[in-house]
Design a protein that fits this description.
Layout: H1 5-13, E1 19-27, E2 30-41, E3 45-50, E4 59-63, H2 64-68, E5 72-78, E6 81-86
Antiparallel strand pairs: 1-2, 1-5, 2-3, 3-4, 5-6
InterPro entries: Protein_Veg (IPR009366)
Pfam families: VEG
Protein name: Protein Veg
Amino acid sequence: MPKTLADIKKSLDLHLGKRLILKANGGRKKTVERAGILRETYHSVFVIELDQDEHAFERVSYSYADILTEAVEITVYEGTEEELVVR
């Protein structure tokens, strides 16, 4: 598991354009699960373009700190295999 924000960004940069599943803390003991494509990484945040048939929003963004604090978990799909990027 990456230990710094820079390591998390580098790890996500390797998976730009790939399909992923994102599990995020929705508050009050709720977990939100979203599917989409990792579109962009910026200095402090990354952007996921969501599947339109499943979600009301087109895009969501999260900070690398959300991954570091384990508020967000990402699973990247490559072909038929799953590769866990950050847990």
